[in-house]
Amino acid sequence: MEIKEFVLGLQHIGLPAKSIEETIRFYGELGFEVAWQTENGKCAFLKLQNIVIETYEVGEHAAQCYGAIDHIAIDVSDVDRVYALAQEKGYPVVSNGLETLPFWENGVKFFTIEGPNKEKVEFNQYL
């Protein structure tokens, strides 16, 4: 099997923010709505039709330059199988293996690999 057989589409684009409030305001003016936000308000998923941006406040550590997108996340149907395939292919995993976060209704399970240009590619499955 190949990884592409498990791909459902683009899940989100990860964007570090100097100020989450400013980022939410800017994208809100473009038509994005907050689809989900952490209790502490420092991470939010903004949605406009089928486009999702995950933004999270990093303060002064935000790159603030062109190319500042942190990662792209690909929605997959079976993250465990995709992780096994990525390991078989020898892709450099830069996450702590398979991880989970309490995002959305039931959480998410994901892992991240490094691409040839030092970009991070996250494979993500809603639980």
Automatic annotation (TrEMBL):
Superkingdom of the source species: Bacteria
Residues making up the signal peptide according to the UniProt record: none
InterPro entries according to UniProt: Glyas_Bleomycin-R_OHBP_Dase, Glyas_Fos-R_dOase_dom, VOC_core
PROSITE patterns per the UniProt record, alphabetical: VOC
Domain VOC: 9-126
Name recorded for this polypeptide: VOC family protein
Originating organism: Neglectibacter timonensis
